[in-house]
Amino acid sequence: MASKIRLEDRECPLSTALGHVGEWWTLLILHDVFDGYTRFDQFQQNLSISSSMLTSRLRTLVANGLLERRAYQANPVRHEYVLTDLGRSLRPVIVALAAWGNSRLDPAARSMILVDAATGVEADPVIVDRVTGRRLDGDDFVFAAGPAASEPFRARYSRESRS
Question: What is the DSSP code string of 102-149?
Fold first, then answer.
């Protein structure tokens, strides 16, 4: 019988990240939190998600450190869900995914766009290297083995394997 590989045991950071946010409900809940929603009933109404599914996803987001659960009412006890620093750090990922989705649509068919809050002018998000300011979507940036890479990962990402 083959042993199960847990997501946290995988070496690839993409696998690890998807283990935390790979379910589409998770990204939609985070998107709602970025839009100011914090309460169970708000998520449920906006997403039309079942109570059990929402409860499960919120528990996972809290367990993974993306949201914090805080009581906002004592009797009866009610909780809200707020972003942690780790959760907030996912905003650029969600912005990039939304922009990618919109780029495949006719502009008249887009139901949500990213705009400058001060001017209302639509933004065109791109991902750039913080050091050089260069776009990361071209062939001049490639993945390489990091300091903790195993030998198979080092072989996969060696310069010779790219030739």
Answer: HHTS-GGG-S---B-TTT-PBP----B-TTT--BSSSTT------TT-
Measured at the CA of 31, the angle between CA 98 and CA 45, to 5 degrees, comes to 120
Residues 6+ apart with CB under 8 A from 61: 26, 29, 30, 67, 81, 87
Which pLDDT value is given to residue 131? Answer: 95
> Is residue 86 helix, strand or coil?
helix
Which residues have CB under 8 Å from 99's CB, separation 6+? 114, 124, 125
Both structure tokens of 58: 């919120």
Full set of structural domains in the chain with CATH: 1-86 (1.10.10.10), 90-125 (no CATH), 137-163 (no CATH)
Question: Against a cut of 0.85, is the pTM above it?
Answer: no
Phi, psi angle pair for 90, to nearest 5°: -85, -10
Question: Is the pLDDT confidence value at 59 over 80?
Answer: yes
Q: What is the pLDDT of residues 20-34, one digit of tens each?
A: 776 788 889 999 999
Helix (H) or strand (E) holding 77: strand 77-83
